[in-house]
Amino acid sequence: MNSRRDFLQQVSLGLGTAAFTSFPALANQLAKGANQDKKLRVAIMGLGGYANIVARGMQECKLATITGVISGTPSKIETWKQKYNIPDKNTYNYETVGQIKNNPDIDLVYVITPNSLHHKHVLQIAAAGKHVICEKPIADNAKQAREMIAACEKAGVKFYIGYRLHFEPHTRELIRMREAGAFGKVMHVNNYAGFKIGDPTQWRLKKSLAGGGALMDVGVYSLNGARYCTGEEPIWVTAQESKTDPVKFKEVDETVTFQLGFPSGIIANCGCTYGFNNVEGLKLMGDKGWAQLNPAFGYGPIRGNTHLGPINAADVNHQANQMDGIADCILNNKPDPNVSGHEGLKDMIVLDAVYESLRKNGAKIMISR
Ligand code: NDP
Prior knowledge:
Largest sheet: 9 strands, mixed
Number of strands: 15
Structural class: alpha/beta
Oligomer: single chain
Strand content: 15-25%
Number of helices: 11
CATH architecture of the largest domain: 2-Layer Sandwich
CATH topology of the largest domain: Dihydrodipicolinate Reductase, domain 2
Strand order of the largest sheet: 14-13-12-11-7-10-9-8-15
Distance between the termini: 19 Å
Order of helices and strands: HHEHEHEEHEHEHEHHEEEEEEEHHE
Number of domains: 2
CATH class of the largest domain: Alpha Beta
Bound molecules: NADPH dihydro-nicotinamide-adenine-dinucleotide phosphate
């Protein structure tokens, strides 16, 4: 796979202001070559809250369309069949999903189930010979993520992670500016993501289904953002947890701060929470300038500012943009902007180290890869 820089350079070629162009518009132009009429046919696995947002967004897609569903809830299958014109023969439950192998109407399965089921579900889809997108966090730990990557490689299917921000125009412009040297040498990064979680009975608060708490769910945004703000991989971490509600957060972390040390000497300060609202943001400080995204990680609109002025990028539907972006990679054999399973694994390696630091009372953990 080419680097993110190669991807962005490729995107910029012939478009001039491509960094300020929405991905569907770009995909439209690119799609006018090969595979003009072909669409990626997608089955959604797990018809919950986020699956509904993805499906709504996909109504704007030019290169991807929903052709199937996998669900444990028959009434949801009925609703989706009507809503998205899905034929009976393209519907499955978690027991019959292996039969998807024989269905020529489905190219890819998008796994949008609780975190701790991602490993099992991605292995099932790989065994059925279909491409797969898995929601974040990729798995419970790096060992599982490596197994998922190996299974997809063995099956010869493509494996992506649902990192929608890697297709988001403000985020891409920040990365482009950083790579072009607009901020000089990156000196510090400060990211925070979180929200006040509601219903105390939900799976996000159960370790067996969530793998962890705020860190797994939204800490991954702070971490991934620190990696795209620096273009480096962390070599050490330290971490601290605060818990204000030990009953609600009996099984999982509530609020975590963590520091990432990078090879160039940069330290990123990151945080995440399930305890309070209005906390998201990303800030990059360089020796020649700065950039800030706020909001940085939600569904948009993302807002960006730099020492040179605002980032005037397009506001897009994140889910449509991501699905057209991934479809364009698959249909037209293009490099992806760092959304392969390997990108998910890189974050999981660091999250493993953050949890190890928490278990060891904030000890500095050197990261081995
Ligand atoms: P929901 O609880 O709303 O939906 C999860 C769905 O998974 C359920 O509706 C159910 O669908 C299915 N499921 C299968 N087994 C179980 C089980 N044992 N317990 C509960 N549900 C089960 O969760 P979300 O949609 O909010 O999150 C799903 C995934 O998407 C998570 O990994 C999350 O991190 C990710 N996500 C990503 C976002 C992003 O911006 N990229 C935003 C929000 C979530 P069915 O009844 O059809 O079987």
